[in-house]
Specification:
262 residues; 16 strands
């Protein structure tokens, strides 16, 4: 076989391989972001800036029972942590509250201070501290005179799934407890929530399947309600819908979650 024919065959083979590679789908390198949560009474819209940082949450109540609530995140540090939150109702945008956060070297929130604007000066209304020890988080809330108002303790397993929540009043009396008994192996929406949100403390990296709420009952004893959760997911394994059913016959609640990629 002539050399020219060999070269021609090899060239055609190389082109065929290249064409085949062009037909193969490229891996999707886009990241997922939570853009909306819809509950039984509210729609929460999430907005991000050009650096993909959460900068705004807008809570709309379709029934009109409450005014639309706006929360804006600002003063980001070098690690992308928001150090200030500004909150206001859409109907009274000049009446604002502020929260400021401090973080430790592991980017965990350690203090959240709530402030009001009084005559152009921001004054402390209350503050919360966060302490971390192993798989536990202890949150304590104080008024502006440093009197403790309440305390919450959260326990997690080694996979960052929540096991329990305990709430106490200013006298150290337990007012509520929640025990989680099972989780799935899919993505929850926890990773998208701001450290300012207590919701971030109350869910795990995976989705709870069952939990039990216990309240002190009047006259002694306890009121116990069991909950079962059924989830739906998208192709990336993120929860898209949760149906929560209570054992007390109170019916079911449906939450949906929407995401976008960019």
């Amino acid at each position: 076989m002539k050399i020219s024919k060999i070269i021609s065959i090899l060239t055609c083979l190389a082109m065929l391989i290249a064409c085949q590679k062009d037909k193969e789908p490229l891996p999707d390198t886009r990241k997922t972001y939570l853009t909306r949560i819809t509950t039984g009474e509210a729609i929460i819209n999430f907005t991000y800036d050009s650096e993909n940082r959460l900068v705004k949450e807008e809570t709309v109540y379709p029934s009109g029972i409450y005014p639309t609530r706006i929360v804006e995140y600002s003063l980001f540090d070098d690690h992308g942590n928001a150090r200030r939150v500004t909150g206001y109702n859409a109907t009274t945008p000049d009446n604002r509250t502020y929260q400021e956060a401090e973080y430790d070297s592991q980017n965990r929130i350690t203090r959240r201070t709530t402030l009001f604007n009084e005559g152009g000066t921001l004054v402390v209304f209350r503050y919360a501290t966060y302490a971390y020890s192993g798989n536990f988080i202890e949150k304590k809330t104080f008024d502006n005179a440093h009197n403790q108002i309440n305390e919450s303790v959260y326990g997690y397993d080694d996979n960052d799934n929540i096991l329990y929540e305990r709430n106490y009043n200013e006298r150290g009396e337990q007012t509520f407890r929640r025990n989680y008994t099972a989780h799935d192996d899919k993505h929850s929406f926890k990773e998208f929530l701001s450290p300012f949100s207590d919701w971030k403390l109350q869910i795990g990296i995976n989705n709870a399947l069952t939990y039990t709420n216990t309240f002190p009952a009047s006259g002694g004893g306890s009121l116990i309600i069991n909950y079962t959760l059924v989830h739906e997911y998208n192709e990336d394994g993120y929860v898209t819908k949760t149906t929560t059913t209570a054992s007390d016959g109170g019916g079911s609640q449906h939450n949906t979650y929407q995401y976008e990629k960019w």
